[in-house]
Amino acid sequence: MSEIEPGAGLSFPTFHERSEKMTPLDLARVELTEKIRELIRDSFVTNAGLDAVQKATNLVSLAVEQVRSNNRLPGEDASQMVFLDRSPLMGAMNALSVPLVMTIEGTGDDRSITGRAVFTEPYEGPPGHVHGGYVAAGFDEVLGMAQSLSGRPGLTGNLSVTYRRPTPLFVELVYRGVCTEVVGRKIFTHGTLHHGDVLCAEATGLFLSMKPDVMARLFRDQQQGALTDLQ
User: Fold this and answer.
1) Is the peptide bond between 88 and the residue preceding it cis, with omega within 30 degrees of 0?
2) Of the candidates 130, 157, 25, 38, which has an alpha carbon nearest to the alpha carbon of residue 80?
3) What integer is the mean pLDDT of 19-26?
4) Three-state SS for 156?
5) Residue 214 sits in a domain of what CATH number?
6) 146 within 8 A of 113, measured Cβ to Cβ
7) pLDDT (tens digit per residue) in 120-160
8) How much is the pTM?
9) Would you tell me which of 32, 52, 100, 152 could form a disulfide with 48, CB atoms 3.0–4.6 Å apart?
10) DSSP-assigned states of every residue in 37-99
């Protein structure tokens, strides 16, 4: 078993591998992000009074001023980050991420992806349980990793999720994803989500591999704030 971060020999290094070790600044940004996640959750459930909330708001405003980027194109700052850091599901520097902790299981053609996460109150849908949209987003991330093991990764073409049981908050959930078949540009995947021995949901995903020149244009246009035709 090997962790996705740092890179573990996947075929799509610009997305799934880290070419260099984290710098002290990178590590500081990860620590900042962890604190922001705490703030998101604690402010969401707080029973603090008006005075405390106003003081917190003032402190957050000061923090925003410290880290704000000015005179940047949309997406330009994110384009400098590897997907491991900016992903909205597993990004170490993305406070919106849960985060999912991803690992590769097995070797050779038997490799699969495992993602582990604990969802908390901000991700709640039904009382005490994870919103179904976040469950689906987790599958998209895990199956996206699984399809990259095919050697010709691409973008999601179709994602179908079947919900078997309500998915609980505050406990470790385990996603598992495998690449089941490759037919031309089509990459087929299957995944499950468990809480212990309980199957909460399962999914199938179809991904469409991209030509190298299309991926190159995606990165170029991201840096320039432009749109790309993915055909």
Assistant:
1) no
2) 25
3) 86
4) strand
5) 3.10.129.10
6) yes
7) 999 999 999 999 999 999 999 999 999 988 888 789 999 99
8) 0.83
9) 52
10) HHHHHHHHH----HHHHHHHHHHHHHHHHHH---S--TTHHHHTS-HHHH-TTT-TT-TT---
What does the pLDDT read at residue 13?
45
Rounded to an integer, the average pLDDT of 185-199 is 96
- Asked whether residue 54 falls in the same domain as residue 82, the answer is no
Residue 194, strand partner residues: 174, 199
> Are the C-beta atoms of residues 30 and 22 closer than 8 Å to each other?
yes
Q: Are residue 51 and residue 159 in the same domain, yes or no?
A: no
Least confident of 27-31, 83-87, 191-195: 83-87
Retrieve residue 19's tokens.
């070419």
User: Which 3 state secondary structure label does DSSP give 146?
Assistant: helix
Peptide bond connecting 99 to the previous residue in cis, omega within 30 degrees of 0: yes
- Identify which of 93, 89, 102 has the alpha carbon closest to the alpha carbon of residue 26: 93
CB atoms within 10 A of CB 147: 29
Residue ranges making up the domain that contains 128? 2-20+74-224
Same domain, 125 and 185: yes
| pLDDT for the residue 220 | 67
Distance (Å, whole) CA 161 – CA 10: 25
Q: Residue 9 domain-assigned? A: yes
Bigger pLDDT: 219 or 183? 183
